[in-house]
Amino acid sequence: MTNKNQLYWSLQFGGWALYTLVNYFSLPLFNLQLPYSGLYFILSGVIGILVTHYYRYVIKEYQWFQLTILKLVRNMLIGALAVTIFYFFALTFLDALLFVFAFFVFHIELSPPSISIDTYWAYFYLSMINVYAVFLLWSLLYFVFQYFENFQKAKYAQVVVQSQLKDATLLNLRNQINPHFLFNALNSIRSLTLIDIHKAREAVTLLSEILRYTLNSEQKKYVKLKDELSVVHDYLELEKIRFGQRLHYEINVDPVCNEIQIPPLMLMTLTENAIKHGISQLKNGGNVLIQANLSHTHLYLSVRNNGMLQEMQTELDSSGIGLQNTRQRLSMLYNNKAFFEIKQNEAETVTASIQIPLQL
Amino acid sequence: MKIKTLLIDDEELARNELKFLLKDFSQIQIVGEASNADEAISMIDSLKPDLLFLDISMPGKNGFELLEELTQTPEVIFVTAFDEFAIKAFEANALYYILKPIKQERLQRAIEKAEKHIEEHQGQESGNLSSDSQVFIKDGEKCYFIKIGDIFLLESAGNYVKVFFENKKPLLHKSLNLLEEKLPQEIFFRVNRQQMINLNYIQNIESYFKGGLHVTLKSGHTVEVSTRQAVRFKELMSL
Questions:
Q1: What b/e sequence results for A154-171 when a residue is b if at least 16 CB atoms lie within 10 Å of its CB, and e otherwise?
Q2: Which of B17, B59, B83 sits opposite A281 (nearest CB)?
Q3: Position B192 pLDDT exceeds 60
Q4: Residue A317: pLDDT above 60?
Q5: φ and ψ of A289, to 5 deg
Q6: Which of A182, A191, A283 sits opposite B16 (nearest CB)?
Q7: DSSP code for B72
Q8: Which of B155, B173, B223 is nearest to B67 (CA)?
Q9: Which ipTM score applies to this complex?
Q10: Euclidean distance between CA atoms A240 and B98, whole angstroms
C-alpha cells in the first residue's frame, strides 16, 4: 500500500515537474514571453497536482473501475474537460492573487504580458487544448496503472487459491487413510487369527488392496469407476468382518458406467462416511446401497445408508472436512458443472449423491 | 482377590480379542460382555463389576455418556482404536486408556493400577454409595472421577447439580432429589431446597432468625439451613 502511494506521488511530482519544465522552455519557440513566467509555471504545476489528486478521489469514490469501457471513455472525456475548466479557474484566480499580493506587499508591479488581446486569446485556447490533452493523458496513465495492478492482484489471488487447493488435496489424502478404520481393522484381524485363520488372511489381503489403492491414487487425477468400485467393495468386505451381521451392503451398477473416469477416493470417502456416521451408530446396524447410473449427459453416483444426518458437517468433525473437500474437488475438476448433495430421506436413511458431467 | 470385570464394546471380534488377552491375568474374572451402553448399564446394576473395559465409540450412547448415567462408577479402563477427542480428554485428565490393537505391557500396567485402586476401596458396601465410591462427571472437555467423600457441597442448578470438590464445581446431569436418595445419609444432609452439604466439612454453625441456622463450610461457603430442616439438623448434630 505504501509502495503504491509512493509510486503515485513520485509519478505525480515527476510528471508535473516535467510538464512545467517542458512548457517553460518551449515558450520561446512560440515567441511568447511572460515576465513572471517562472512563478506562473510553478503555480500551474502545483495546481495540476492538486486538481488531479482531487480527480483521483472522484474516480475512486464513484468507482469508475466498475464501469463498462464505453462509459469509462465517456467519463474520461467529460472528466478531463471538467478538470481543465476547474484548472483554469484556479490558475486565473491564483494568478490574480499573486499579482495583487506582489503589488501590495512587495510594491512590485508585475506587468501583464506585452501581447495583443488576440494573441492572448489564441494562447489561452491553445493552452486550454494542451491542458485538456494533458489531463486525458493523466487519466489514461492512471487507468493503465490501475488495471495493471489489478491484473497482478488477480494473478496473485489465483496462485493463493491454487496452493490452498493443493493443501486441501493433501489433507484429503491424509484423511483417506482413516486411522480409526485402520486400527479397528488391524484389531479385528488380530482377533480373527485366533478363530478363523483363512478369514484373517483374506482380511489382510483386503486391507492391503485398500492401502495400495489409496497410496497410488495420490498421483492420479481420475480413475475408472470399476477400479474405485473394486476398492469400495474390498472396504465393505473388511468392515463386514468387523461389524458382522450389523452390516449389509449392495453394489448396484449399470455395467455401461464401468469405464467412466471419476476422481479417485470420492466414492470411497462417501462409503466410509456411511459406515462411520451411519451403520456404526446403529445398534442393529443397517444397509449400505451403492448405485451408479448413466444418462446422456451425466454419471450419477449415490451412497445410501441407514442413519440420521445429524451434525455430521460441523467444522470440528473430520467428515465435515471430507464432505467439504468432495465439494471443492468436484468444482475444481469439473468447473462447477458437477453436483454433490447429502440429505436425510424420510425413511431414516441418508443419501449422498454425485452428478458428474460426461463432457469436460 | 478376583476382580469382577465387564467388557463393553460393540464389536464382537474386539471383545474376543480382549478376552483372549485377559486370559493371562488370573485375577480378572469376566462376569459379562455388553455390546452397547444400555445393555452395559443394566449389567452394571445387576452384576456390580469392579472394573470396566470400556470402548468409547459405540452406537447410541458413547463410553462417556454411559459413565455419566451411572450413580456409582466402577474402575474404568478406556479402550479405543483412534479417537482424537477422547484421547485428548484422557490425557488432560490423567485417565487410564489403552489403544487397539492392545499391547500386552500397556494392558498389564492398566490392570495393575486398577487393581491397586480396587484394593484401596475394598470392604465398601456395594449398592448404596459410600464415601469411598466414585462418580464420573464429564463437564465439557474435562472428565472427573470424584470420590464421594471429597464432595463438600451440592447445589441444584436447573436440571443439573453443581458438584463442589477441591476448587472445582462441574455440573452433573442429575437431580438433587435423586442424589439425596443415593448419597450416604450419615455424611450428606439436605440443608434446604437447593443445597446439600457434607457434614464432615462443617466449620461453624450460627443461629439465624426464625429458628434457621447459618452453616459455614471449611471451603468458606456459607449455606442456610431452612427452619424445617434445622430441627432435624440439630438432632443429627446433637446440638
A1: eeeeeeeeeeeeeebeee
A2: B59
A3: yes
A4: no
A5: -120, 125
A6: A191
A7: S
A8: B173
A9: 0.80
A10: 24
